[in-house]
Amino acid sequence: MPESNVTNILVVGIGGQGVMTATEILAEAAIALGHDVKKTEVAGMAQRGGVVSSHLRFGPKVLSPQIMPGTADLLVAFEAAEGLRWCHYLKPGGLVLMNTAQIVPPVVDLGLYDYPPDPIAEIRAKGYRIHAFDAMKIALELGDVRLGNTVMLGAMADHLPFPADVLLEAIVKRFRARKPQMVELNQKAFEAGRTAEKAAAHAKETETA
Amino acid sequence: MPASNPSRLFLSGNEAVARAVWESGCKVAAAYPGTPSTEMLEVISTYPEIYSEWSVNEKVALEVAIGAAFAGSRAFCAMKHVGMNVASDALMTLTLTGVIGGLVIAIADDVGLSSSQNEQDSRFWGRFAHLPVFEPADSQEAYEMTKLAFDFSEQHQVPVILRMTTRINHVKGLVSVGTRAEHPNLGGFKKDPARWVMTPAGAGRRIPLMFERDVALAAAAEVSPLNSVESGRDRRVGFVASGPTYMHVKESFPDAPVLKLGFSCPVPVEKIRTFAATVDKLIVVEEVEPLVEKELKAAGIACHGKDLLPKQGELAPNVLRPAIAKLLGEPAPEHLAPPAPVFPRPPTMCVACPHLGVYYTLSQIKNITISGDIGCYTLGAGHPWNALDTTISMGASMGIALGLDKGRGEADKDKRILAVIGDSTFLHMGMQGLLDIVYNRGNVTVLLLDNRAVGMTGGQPDPGSGRDIHGEPAPRVDFAKLVEALGVKKERIHVVDPYQLPVLFKAIREEIKIPEVSVIITDQPCVLIDDYKKQKPYEVLDAKCTGCGNCIEVGCPAIHVVRREKAIKPSGKEVELQFVRIETSVCTGCGLCVQPCAPDAIVPADPSKPIRLVKH
Q1: Which of B115, B174, B251 is the closest to A31 by Cβ?
Q2: Which of B34, B233, B338, B354 has the most crowded Cβ, counting Cβ within 10 A?
Q3: How far apart, in whole angstroms, are the C-alpha atoms of residue B616 and residue B612?
Q4: Helices (H), strands (E): how many in chain B?
Q5: Count of CB atoms within 10 A of residue B487's CB?
Q6: What are the chain A neighbours of B252 within 8 Å (beta carbons)?
């Protein structure tokens, strides 16, 4: 049965946040470990502020590229409301790693719809686990909002079926080839994300919501 | 380790096709960009051995490829599904002449409508034009079938359609690749008017040859290794599947027998008949239309298909499993958690998009009907502008506007008719429509939104860009001269800056009053291309903002409401005030929102302050 050996990771967010790049790097790490890998996006006009969802599946053999609702091992949400929108893709009791930054679309500013008042509480109420922190703030503190996706990769690092170093190596490899001056900063962003996620996981256990 | 093998690459279906086109020794490749097909030509353009171009439309792209194939070279053409509607005039005669050099036509069907105005099944073009259709199921097959398609094309002197869907084009998987082999030109263009000049008499003589070819193609499909049977232990149901549906079937029913169709037109009916006899029930799984299913039923082969499965969208495992469980009389798979109700996040115009000012202006004008077109500016139909009344197909805004004018009823007597079209769209199919408006003395005001790129597909260049597919300088069309040459009076042509709202407003207001064709050209680059120059951002002075909300009506995604308040106007009417803030980290300083702001609350941002993210 292919299913049981396949890891399903769903990464979601808004066009321009680096969702697809982060998933690509995750895919490269899985390839480096010798897995069969498939990756697909639903990015319909995402460049225009739409929703991006990137499906990554890896294991000995991957057939369908799509993750089915109710089967994702991990949901990584680059935006709070998107975490809520996609959480039904998780296995029962599955884990959401969430950037709490909120990106409000024009339809909400126009007063046509409401932004969910507390996405984290809603996700918890559905029985999923969630570790949430402000990745955008961390990226800005490091000097560049575009580091946000590396921060989120750092958050994933301890929830993958392979060592964190493999993922970090995939990040370093990518930047070494394209923007060598950004290697060190991305390493920092990765570690910052990893630390923030650990803190969020700890906070979750000591308090509610 | 596979990863250490450099010949194994992680490629999307589009990238895999491009690689195979290169390896096959192809000489000429042409396309008009369109999701989900665009990346095929983008990648091919990086190979110096291949002449590549963005053509003005798919018909021209196919014609360029046809010419190269007639000249004995291998040629490639790519398009999205709706593109073949445009190219089909050439295709339907090409099928009579056939080719010399191998010609592969990749058609990308947007199953699930990620970014298209319809969902159509391009396998019908294979039927309609009597051409073979290959259907890859993943990136590896996209690569292999493209190579096979070139060989098959030359062997049978027939163009081959490579039918792909979004889940092939945009799925990345591992692909074992080879190296490029030079493919010799097959002897140059040989004069043969009886074959290449399709007069009625000449075409009439070629039609019987097409029917002969049908027989050869049907025989080839029956024995092709691209159509293969995979046995399975659970013979209660057997599947016929092609393209991505094959993967979905294998994922959902790993023990069921499957006949995989890689060469799906002509349908290998006898092969399927033999397979059907080995299973209790036969199920045809196809996206989108029941094309194979109907052919099997016509041949007397009992099967299920669209009686169980949706006629729209993708047939992923979450769709397949419950449908087949029902057929088997099994309980439906475990009930899954329902999705949470979250606000929709529709695509919108970019921050500072030059079209914002156009739609803001149009939304302020009453008593107009606006005929729209395909491209970013279709988003003008959405909030807050609601400024488009029709959208059908590329270039159609022109003819439809003329029809709205000529066919108007008494109720629309005083309505002004406007048509909105982009630069690439105008060059693609709009020019002829404008000529028709001029020729037939239509009363239409045309807004030609020149943003110097094919914006919606990612800013690819067009003849209005001044650059070619490689980014090299190219002649730039002069739209004012072009529309004048089509017969628009010089005094009815205006070139305006869409960021100058009063100028734009005045031009539109004046021209809609004049009962003849006018063209207003807006000339500012797409914010996503290199020509766009960012300026310093603006910010809102909280103390000055009165909450009037005028700036929100511009529709720029950088403007956010941070506070709403109810207020009573002197007239006694209750209004909602909306106090705003500008996301300075993304504002490019275009100044559009500054213009409708009465209290002058929007000012250049203080550079000493940190950039501001808006968070509720």
Answers
A1: B174
A2: B354
A3: 12
A4: 19, 22
A5: 12
A6: 64
Residue ranges for chain B with pLDDT beneath 50: 1-4, 615-616
Number of H helices, E strands in chain A: 9, 6
For chain A, say whether B316 makes contact (Cβ under 8 Å). Answer: yes
The pLDDT of residue A209: 42
Check: CB of residue A71 under 8 Å from CB of residue A3: yes
Long-range contact set of residues A135-144: C-beta below 8 Å, sequence gap at least 24: A135/A78, A135/A99, A135/A100, A135/A101, A135/A193, A135/A196, A136/A99, A136/A101, A136/B613, A137/A101, A138/A189, A138/A192, A138/A193, A138/A196, A139/A189, A140/B613, A142/A185, A142/A188, A142/A189, A142/A192, A143/A185, A144/A185
Q: What is the pLDDT of residue A176?
A: 93
Q: What is the pLDDT of residue A45?
A: 61
Nearest to B353 by CA among B430, B457, B420, B449: B449
Give me the pLDDT at residue B606, please: 84
pTM of the model: 0.95
Distance CA B491, CA B507 (A): 12
DSSP B196-252: H---HHHHHHHHHHHHHHHHHHHHHHHH-TTEEEE--S-TTEEEEEETHHHHHHHHH
- Residues of chain B in contact with residue A136, where contact means CB-CB under 8 angstroms, are 613
Which pLDDT value is given to residue B227? Answer: 98
Residues of chain B with C-beta less than 8 angstroms from the C-beta of A126: 337, 340
Cβ separation of B552 and A110 shorter than 8 Å?
Answer: yes
Q: What is the pLDDT of residue B561?
A: 94
CB-based contact A28:A160 (threshold 8 Å):
no
Per the CB < 8 A criterion, the answer to whether B222 and B270 are in contact is yes
- CB-count exposure of residue B85 (10 Å: 0-12, 13-18, 19+): middle
Name the token pair of B198: 């399709």
Beta bridge partners of B421: B448
Backbone φ and ψ for A90, nearest 5 degrees, come out as -75, 155
* Per-residue model confidence (pLDDT) at position A47: 65
Selection from A14, A209, A15, A173 nearest residue B342 by Cα: A14
Q: Calculate the CA A131 to chain-centre distance.
A: 11
Mean pLDDT across A149-164: 97
Calculate how close chain B gets to A54, using CA atoms only, in Å.
10
> What is the predicted pLDDT for the residue at A207?
57
Question: Residue B439: CB partners within 8 Å, gap ≥ 6?
Answer: B487
Q: ipTM of the predicted structure? A: 0.94
Residue B172 touches partner A, C-beta closer than 8 Å: yes
Average pLDDT over residues A124-135: 96
Residues 6+ away with beta carbon under 8 Å from B365: B505, B508, B509, B512
> pLDDT per residue over B426-479, tens digit each?
999 999 999 999 999 999 999 999 999 999 998 999 999 999 999 999 999 999
In the stretch 30-59 of chain A, residues with CB closer than 8 A to chain B read 31-34, 36-51
Q: By percentage, how much of chain B surpasses pLDDT 70?
A: 98
Q: Which residue of A has its CA nearest to B1?
A: A34
DSSP code of residue B514: S
